[in-house]
Amino acid sequence: MNEALNTVTEKRTERRFKGLRSLACGCVLIVGFASLLQPQAKTAFPVTTYNLRNGLQVILAEDHSLPVVSVVVAYRVGSIREKPGLTGLAYFLQKLMFQGSQNVGPLQHISQINRVGGDINATTSEELTLFYQTVPSNQLPIILWLESDRMRYLDIRPATIERVRASLIEEIVERRASEPYWDSNLLFDQVLFPNFPYGHPVIGFEEDVLALTMEDISDFYIDYYAPNNAALCLSGDIQLPRAREPISRYFETLPRDSDIPDLPPGPPRERRGETQTVRNYLAPSPAFHLGFPIAAPGTRDFTILTVLDYILMRGETSRIPRRILQKERLAIEINGGIEKRRDRAAFRIFAVNNNDLMVERCRDAMLSELGKVKTGFVGQDELAKAKAMLRMDMVRRTATSLEKALFLCESVLTQPGFSDFASELEKYLSVTPSEIVGVANRYFKDTDALVLNIQK
Amino acid sequence: MKDSARTRSLLLALGIWAALLAGAAPGAGQERFRRSQPNPDPLPQLRLPAIETHRLSNGLLLAVCKRDRLPLISLQLIILAGEAQSPDDVPGTATLAARLIQQGTDLISAEEVKARIEAIGGEFSTSTQLDDSLFTFNFLEDHLDKALEILAPLILQPSFPRRELDVVKRTMRYALLERDKDPEFLAKRQLLRLLFPKHPYRKGIFSDDVIKAIGRPHVQAFYDANYRPNNAIMVLSGNLSLTTATGKVSHYLNTWRPKDIVRPPVAPPEPNLKERICLIDNPQTRDATLSIGTVIGPASDADTLPLEILSQVLGGTPTSRLFMNLRETKGYAFFAFSELDLFKNCGLFLVRARVRPEFCGISIREILGEIAGIVEEQVPSYDIEQAKSRLIGNFPLRIEAFDQLALRVAQIKAFNLGEESWNRHYEVIMLVNAETVTRAAQKYPLRTPVVVIAGDKNILVDYLHDFENIEVYNAKGVFQYNLTRGGKE
Questions:
Q1: pTM, rounded to two decimals
Q2: Which ipTM value was assigned to this complex?
Q3: Contact with chain A for residue B40, Cβ under 8 A
């Protein structure tokens, strides 16, 4: 094979020996997710999970409604694993994964999916990189073959790297040109998530992407694209005993790599408010960002804040859009809500206003709405509405085989303590008005507010 | 034909290259099964849920497609009147009427409607096409009664409040102005204007300037004439039976009164028979956006499926002829695809592409050459079978979501598509062969489409010398002058 692949293989071999030390505990583990679910609950669905000897987590969700299957391979790597000067690597790798591997030609993966009428895509977040496809269920062995090949034997060539780099740079330039508030968004990310791993853009900084070397890219691939750092989910028309055989054939034969240490938790963001102002002459209107650091995902406070997010921001009749957009017309547009990045989370709102006076009045109105939830109980009807919307959103996240597979991968890999769909939903449905008052007082102190004003 | 062979050769070469590399791989210890693609299992059987129908006493056609996988119901209400039925002098009325329906009644304010929908976790949306107006309501299954309780007064007693009319008109106008910034929209809009010069479908291509002319009386008259149960179809997909649905829908909509609706037959638009190149001058645009189209038969026409297969071969995917030729081989285009747009009265065979300005003229020639090639020379059976397997494989993916399933059923009923589009769909696809594709392709003037380019005239004009005459329009679509080889006319 080419020189680049040789290098990747050698480095892999070197690291595999390190990984062997932890192989002893990689025994097969079969967890009956189905047994954890309530069969009578409509939102529950049977799930089987187990680990391969090489550490790959396998998630199987059987559903024979239609003869289709979704296959998701999720790698526990995203932009938070990037180092200063090497931003954009995770997203770069996502693009590179479609450019061919040792036994698969550059267009073969996409064209195979197209040929059989399937859908294919990939996404990179701060925490995960997910590759996914939905195909007629008879194509399953081919998809497993394709995915396993690029998990281990990606073909990294200088010409391909340059092609991907050019398309990424074009994407960055286009986003900057088409989204006038993009730079301010990145700046506010850094205000909300001041630790470098959390606060830089997934797409990367242009100068970093231009400077990425072949070695940076192949090292990142070797470090993070390993079975013991991934989950494989099959959802749809699969036969459970039969599905295990091709999974074992194509994936269990891949060697385990060295274990990836958890990122050390960064220092929590100091809870002290600050206001910054930047000028952007290209912005069509003045605007501002408002945010608060909040409880970590997986905690009870985070669950309560999620329900509060529905009361404040979700839907047209939630408190903030109703007041800002409908009653007082203080903004041209607003968006936002809870945003989580691994073990960090924030509540943030972005508003575009007609003039600087409106910026001030709009921000005051938002803070006053946050003040109201600190001093008064949310009514039962309003709480029921928030929970109905939340329940609908959760049900919709499992409405197709692909949505279900993505939901399962994300839940298993990122949600501490996730057990099953029904009990996850129950956590939200059990939130009470007094708990909401409690979290509002803990996390929405006026003195903790982080503000970034954008002036024209 | 030539290019198809070239495409296949390219793919074959890529395959051989990959195989050679695999054979020479340093990972000599790599398992043999990794070196070649495994075979698929046999094609699985497709068992679709039955579409059960019942016509209520007031004429409303109710269709139920039972799915019990999730606690969700998707309700689609189709009113069989769209922009083609808007008054000639106020296009946009159908769209405005549909949007105003959800703005309340004399007794329920717009805000109260939104609150009631959100209280059941519901999602409500409207869209207006050329032939129909569609209302989609998705909700949790335990809220069927409440959902119908919300929907019934909106459909039966809309008040079209003046304040909301102004708000919706303003929103529509901004949305249209925003769309004007998209070169792909500009090119497609102009193409439709040129293909439908005197046809009712032309009304579907209205600009922001007509919105202000629409008044409440127009909307009320449109509603009175078209929002009738005997001119509507309701589809419910979810965990419910036809009996339950019939009982509940009758309970809430039994006072909806029918009315005779007479529509004179409309002839399909005249096809374009000679080369016609049009340029929309959209200054400051970096690339050239192409929208190329021909009028074909309606959605219910027997030629639709062979033409769909032809379109798949020509430009259905990134591995089809247009993409492989214009982007992968020659590097002229960012993308190039073909597709069908199907309506009740006629359909369109379309090619859309975004190309580098310096290759604009040559790209148009390449596209026209690809179209001529696929029409004149019989498509190889291998390509036909590939396209068929793509359509067969894709069909269940498109009906997986509850709302997509309900929408598909609604389209089948609205366009009278019959079992050929449902239980017999695979069977009907399998019957298509190279002869039926060529026959369908040669029945329509696919070789002489209207070509619309959206881009910066000052840049593009240097790359369009090859064409005898170019009609130049401004960004609003108003004709400016003809650009001939000899100069401006």
A1: 0.88
A2: 0.85
A3: yes
